[in-house]
Specification:
Blueprint lengths: L11 H30 L3 H23 L3 H22 L11 H11 L2 H27 L6 H68 L3 H31 L8 E5 H16 L5 E4 L6 E5 H17 L6 E9 L2 E8 L6 H5 L22 H10 L4 E7 L3 E9 L1
Length: 409
């Protein structure tokens, strides 16, 4: 019953509101049936007829709106109908033993959960206005005068308590939902990063193992030994990479938080180059890096490794066979600047503009048909920006590309 007419594709919070509509309508429907039986038993036919009319003209139309998925219309319809019905019915036929107006503080919760901002406040205010209107009209009808009593202050405090408690609970619920959504987004990013970073070295490893099979068939023992050494080295590097990524993902249990420490960035780059050579050597691409002077930078070591590795692997992918990739590091204007320059296919101006755009995902093939996802550079940009750094790119079609990574010194 709670899920009646609820669209499965609705966002979680919207689905909760729609389900709350169902709860309100079904509960009121049951209450009306009970009231109908009581009113008939007490021969209070006016109220019995009003119960039937409310069910026919409010509950049934609300269920129809719900079925047709007119949720916003239904929320205004339900709140407005119950406000109007309670106010008019109570004034026309006031029963001192029932005091039906006291249902209004409970129904006021609907305004808190259905709407936000000024709509929430405005619609909520209609409930105490309706409540006190009933009390004062009945007081005038009974005593011929209207006066403010201590009891009215208690009623006001009752509405205020409902507003404060419900608003606090809703805010806590929204805060929990935001944290949950961020956790889910983080997990998705982690899986995306891990799958992207592991795929390339495994492709190279598979390619080398395929060559090894040919060497074995041709009984070329020398090349077989060389390929075995490459496979062994590659397997160790892949293991190190996997362990590094898994350790990092474990530390990101709730959100992508940076762990800033003083890092020998020169040593990190050397390790990355050694790893990237798994892909560079088969294409006979030379990775050139002058590492004479060690540079230390305050950064997140793992995030920075992933970012640099993605950029270099991207350069290898789009470089021609027998070419170079030049990697440099300098300190300028109290910033660490790393430059990665390739002499490959380059990019058209439109592709360069959209290179880091999250709404633009363009998977392309490398110079030797290497398949990509288009995610690597976007991941790099995000990880560097989380460290208050930035990545810039220059490119000319047919000439190559230059990527510059900046980190605070």
């Amino acid at each position: 019953m709670v899920d009646f007419g609820v669209d499965e594709n609705l966002p979680y919070l919207e689905a909760c509101k729609v389900k709350l509509l169902n709860v309100a309508v079904w509960v009121i429907s049951v209450v009306l049936v009970i009231f109908l039986i009581v009113n008939l038993f007490e021969k209070n036919y006016f109220l019995a007829v009003s119960d039937v009319l409310l069910f026919i003209f409010v509950c049934i139309p609300s269920l129809i709106l719900q079925y047709k998925r007119k949720y916003k219309t239904n929320s205004f319809f339900i709140v407005g109908a119950f406000l109007l019905y309670t106010t008019l019915l109570t004034i026309l036929k006031y029963d001192v033993n029932r005091q039906t107006e006291h249902i209004l503080p409970a129904l006021a919760i609907l305004a808190i959960f259905f709407w936000d901002g000024w709509k929430k406040n405005l619609i909520f205010m209609l409930f105490p206005i309706s409540f006190f209107a009933i009390r004062f009209v009945v007081m005038y009808q009974t005593y011929g005068r209207i006066e403010i009593q201590t009891l009215h202050l208690i009623y006001f405090i009752e509405f205020l308590s409902v507003y404060i408690i419900s608003t606090y609970f809703k805010a806590a619920m929204l805060n929990f939902y935001d944290k949950l959504q961020k956790t889910i987004d983080t997990k998705n990013k982690l899986f995306r990063i891990i799958s992207h970073d592991i795929k390339n070295p495994f492709s190279s490893l598979l390619g080398t193992s395929e060559l090894q099979l040919r060497f074995a068939q041709n009984e070329d023992i020398e090349k077989l030994k060389q390929s075995s050494q490459i496979i062994h080295s590659s397997a160790n590097k892949i293991y190190d990479l996997t362990q590094s990524l898994l350790d990092w993902s474990s530390s990101q249990a709730e959100t992508l938080e940076t762990k800033i420490e003083n890092v020998n960035i020169t040593e990190v780059i050397e390790q990355i180059i050694e790893f990237c050579e798994i892909s560079a050597i088969p294409k006979e691409i030379e990775l050139v890096f002058d590492s004479k002077n060690a540079v230390f930078v305050n950064c997140d070591a793992v995030m920075t490794q992933i970012a640099i590795r993605n950029i270099i692997m991207n350069a290898i992918k789009f470089s021609y066979r027998n070419s170079k990739i030049i990697i440099t590091q300098i300190i300028a204007n109290n910033q660490f600047v790393m430059t990665i320059e390739d002499f490959g296919v380059g990019m058209e101006e439109d592709n360069l503009k959209n290179l880091f755009d999250d709404n633009y995902l363009h998977a392309s093939y490398g110079t030797e048909k290497e398949k990509g996802t288009g995610l690597g550079l976007k991941i790099s940009k995000e990880l560097i920006e989380k460290q208050n750094g930035r990545i810039e790119a220059e490119s000319l079609l047919g000439k190559g590309s230059i990527f510059r990574m900046f980190l605070p010194k």
